[in-house]
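Quick note —
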Amino acid sequence: MNNARGILGAAVTLCFALAPLAAPAQGLGADGTARASDPPPVQIDPREVTPDSLISRNQAQERDPNRGPVTNLPLPRYVSLKGSEGNVRRGPSLSHRIDWVFRHAGMPLRVVAEFGHWRRVEDRDGAGGWVHYSLLSGVRTAVITSDLVDLRARPDTNATVVARAESGAIVRVNECNPDWCRVSGGGEKGWVPKSVMWGVDPGEIRD
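Predicted structure written out below.
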């Protein structure tokens, strides 16, 4: 129990345990919804949709529903927030109002839809909306969902504990077998079960 070298949490920059993942945008109710006096959402500005992002109805029907119509990448899929802040909008254009602001660089997000230069994302609580693709990174991260999770030297419950991570800590996902992932953060590396974090799919393999 005493051989862990460190705890990934409030003391390291990869943790957000003491702050909310997302905050309602100014001018919205506490639940992130528009007040009754708010005007209805505006239509998508056609200037923000590139010709390459438009496909015909027949083409849409022929596409694999498990692939994004813009990138042809899997849907859903995990990405991470590139910067320390990202505006989340009601629709895929700058003319749509901001409902949420995601905070904390590196936080994992799940892409569930695509439109032009925009991606619809969700956080671990299912909150989300549309963000510009430039705010997202392909670097894979995960958030620890249990308190004081042991990082082990090998993917084995009997392996040596090399560090511990607090609930809410963000870690980088390096490789995964069907049940475990090797993660890093705060200068520490180790294996953790998939069941104690959000940001990877059950059975997902990463080399």
